Amino acid sequence: MSKSCKGLAMELVKCLSETDCVKVQKRPYKECAGEKAPNITSECVGLRETYFNCKRGQVDMRARIRGNKGY
Q1: What is the pLDDT of residues 30-43, one digit of tens each?
Q2: Is 14 contained in some domain?
Q3: Which residues of the chain have pLDDT under 70?
Q4: What InterPro entries does this protein's entry cite (predicted)?
Q5: Is residue 44 assigned to a domain?
Q6: Angle, CA 59 vertex, CA 70 and CA 66 arms, to 5°
Q7: Hey, which of 2, 21, 32, 54 has its CA 20 to 30 A from 44?
Q8: Residues 6+ apart with CB under 8 A from 36
């Protein structure tokens, strides 16, 4: 279960690496992931929300019994 969000994490990093926040401003991924929509694309915002829900599902006891809604 610990690796169920790994695919989402890799796609989020890939998406963030193509944004101006990382390319032009040369800021770390962690800072850019917390940015609002003007600095990063809506696709990255959607991936960030999906990744957050995946990580939250790992802690939720109901989801642990049923299994995380994997990627």
Answers
A1: 888 887 767 788 89
A2: yes
A3: 1-2, 37, 63-71
A4: Cyt_c_oxidase_assmbl_Pet191
A5: yes
A6: 50
A7: 2
A8: none
d(CA 18, CA 32) in angstroms, rounded, equals 11
The strand ranges marked E within 7-69 are none
Contact criterion met (CB below 8 Å) for 8 and 49: no
Give the three-state DSSP class for 39: coil
Structure tokens, 40: 């990063």
Structural domain boundaries, residue 23: 3-59
Residue 69 within any structural domain of the chain: no
- Model confidence, pTM: 0.76
Count of structural domains within the chain: 1
Contact 64, 58 (CB under 8 A): yes
The pLDDT value recorded for residue 68 is 61
